[in-house]
Amino acid sequence: MTKRFFSVFAITVAIFLWGCKEQNQSVIEMVTADEMVDLIDQLDYKLLDVRTPEEYKSGTIAGAYNMDYLSEAFNIQIKTLDPTEPIVVFCKSGKRSSACAEFLEKQGFVKIYNLKGGITQWTNLGLPIVLPE
Predict the structure, then answer these.
(1) Catalytic residue among 50, 67, 91, 112
(2) How far is Cα of residue 38 from the mean position of the Cα atoms in its chain?
(3) Cβ contacts of residue 95 below 8 Å, gap of 6+?
(4) What range defines the domain where residue 34 resides?
(5) DSSP state of 78
(6) Biggest distance spanned by C-alpha atoms of the chain
(7) Exposed site from 44, 50, 121, 131, fewest CB < 10 Å?
(8) Which residues 6+ apart lie within 8 Å of 60 measured at CB?
């Protein structure tokens, strides 16, 4: 009976610790526009607008770099970024940036924040955008 108890206890603890480890290793974090405002104030990060150049020219979040996720040049451009630094990605609605975040994770980026709802959500809340120079 005692051996069985310890076996079940050991398995339970192992499953619990494995589950905690998985939670702590999350590389991609979805953030709302409100949460992103706080992140921008607190982090040393790269802000990456992954929309097309035409979309980017219509207005973006201050400080954002434009790298079109759908362009052939994206794979080369992304190599200019430091994968050890946090990166915040966004697009128009969140679909492209979600795919981009998964790609960045596979490329070894250690912390990726993805703006839920994209720049559409950002502007719907009345948050400012700028026209790039």
Answers:
(1) 91
(2) 15
(3) 118
(4) 27-124
(5) G
(6) 74
(7) 44
(8) 49, 66, 119, 129, 130, 132
